[in-house]
């Protein structure tokens, strides 16, 4: 049942007794029982005793940016429900909700998940007695009040980096990049191999970058090219958006042997028939 303020209650019948007169005693008489019987007699009068417990329904909802991520997120719970303590923990995936009927101040906290940041924590409904702490990833809900619905949104940043020919600017593959941030494991990505998300040759997209300052370094040039500038490039992943950051394109120059290829036109047929990847000569053509 719900009162005029929106506070919900749960009624627990504690005992039943035959009415000794025309009104019920304020406290259950000694012969009260917990059996609930309703003999349908014409003049049945009985006294029913119960307890109204204020119940506050808390809904915890998980959302991810980008939407629909397959990851699962762990929560630690601390508090009580009408039926006993809250479970110590739970895990939720994108669009999942968990509903609890609390009867005491309760805290719901999300643990850190690698590659994700908690970018938003907001509650709607009756937010009286509700405290959110985005930095700590917790929401504390007081015992009294109406129902409240809290959404934990986790965001995964990303970056796009391109590899272009220094002469002409065409996209070239396949380079390898190392993404680094202090305190995080380095992410090494070779173009068009996992975890590159962009199938375009010459363009690499990575996810799982927590907000903050990152560096990206080209660690291996495409075949036939040399790294023009081995220094790391710094970029910033903003909080609260899943849109990947575009890092200025890296450019590499063709290796001398490739650049001078036109001069090799007079070479023998066997010399010209080379494996372009390794540079090694291949068996002579028939
Ligand atoms: Ca979603
Ligand atoms: Ca690619």
Features:
five-stranded antiparallel β-sheet, five-stranded mixed β-sheet, 286 residues, Immunoglobulin-like, binds calcium ion, rod-shaped
At the fourth CATH level, what is the homologous superfamily of the largest domain?
A: Immunoglobulins
Q: How many E strands?
A: 21
Number of domains: 3
Terminal CA distance reads: 91 Å
The CATH topology of the largest domain: Immunoglobulin-like
Name the helix and strand elements from N-terminus to C-terminus, one letter apiece.
EEEEEEEEEEEEEEEEEEEEEHH
Based on Cα principal axes, name the global outline. Answer: rod-shaped
Task: Tell me the helix content.
Answer: under 10%
Counting helices, strands and paired strands, the structural category is mainly beta
CATH architecture heading of the largest domain: Sandwich
Largest sheet: 5 strands, mixed
Specify the CATH class of the largest domain.
Mainly Beta
Spans where pLDDT lies below 50 across 5 or more residues: 263-286
Radius of gyration: 33 Å
Counting DSSP H or I runs of 4 or more residues, the number of helices is 2
Percent strand: over 45%
Bound molecules: calcium ion
> What's the average pLDDT?
86
Describe this structure in words.
The structure is a single chain. Residues 263-286 have low confidence and may be disordered. The radius of gyration is 33 Å and the shape is rod-shaped. The chain is an all-beta fold. The strands form five sheets. Strands 1, 2, 7, 9 and 12 form a five-stranded mixed sheet that branches. It folds into three domains: 8-53, no CATH class; 56-155, Immunoglobulin-like (Sandwich), CATH 2.60.40.1140; 157-257, Immunoglobulin-like, CATH 2.60.40.10. It has two helices and 21 strands. The chain binds calcium ion (2 copies). One calcium ion is lined by residues 63-64, 67-68, 94-95.
């Amino acid at each position: 049942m719900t009162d005029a303020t929106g506070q919900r209650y749960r009624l627990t019948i504690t005992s039943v007794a035959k009415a000794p007169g025309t009104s019920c005693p304020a406290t259950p008489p000694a012969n009260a029982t917990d059996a609930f019987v309703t003999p349908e007699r014409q003049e049945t009068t009985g006294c029913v005793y119960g307890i109204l417990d204020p119940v506050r329904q808390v809904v915890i909802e998980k959302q991810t940016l980008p939407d629909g991520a397959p990851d699962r997120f762990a929560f630690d719970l601390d508090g009580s429900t009408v039926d006993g303590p809250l479970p110590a923990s739970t895990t939720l995936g994108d669009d999942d909700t968990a509903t609890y009927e609390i009867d005491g101040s309760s805290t719901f906290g999300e643990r850190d998940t690698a590659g994700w940041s908690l970018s938003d924590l907001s509650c709607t409904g009756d937010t009286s007695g509700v405290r959110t702490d985005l930095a700590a990833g917790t929401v504390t809900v007081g015992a009294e009040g109406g129902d409240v619905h809290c959404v934990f949104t986790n965001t995964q940043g990303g970056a796009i980096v391109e590899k272009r020919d220094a002469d002409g600017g065409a996209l070239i593959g396949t380079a390898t990049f190392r993404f680094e941030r202090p305190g995080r494991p380095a992410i090494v990505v070779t173009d068009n191999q996992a975890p590159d998300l962009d199938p375009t040759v010459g363009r690499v997209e990575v996810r799982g970058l927590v907000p903050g300052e990152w560096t990206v370094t080209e660690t291996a040039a495409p075949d036939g090219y040399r790294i023009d500038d081995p220094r790391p490039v710094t970029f910033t992943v903003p909080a609260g958006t899943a849109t990947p950051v575009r890092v200025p394109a890296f450019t590499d120059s063709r290796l001398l042997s490739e650049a001078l290829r036109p001069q090799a036109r007079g070479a023998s047929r066997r010399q010209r028939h080379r494996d372009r990847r390794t540079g090694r000569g291949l068996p002579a053509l028939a």
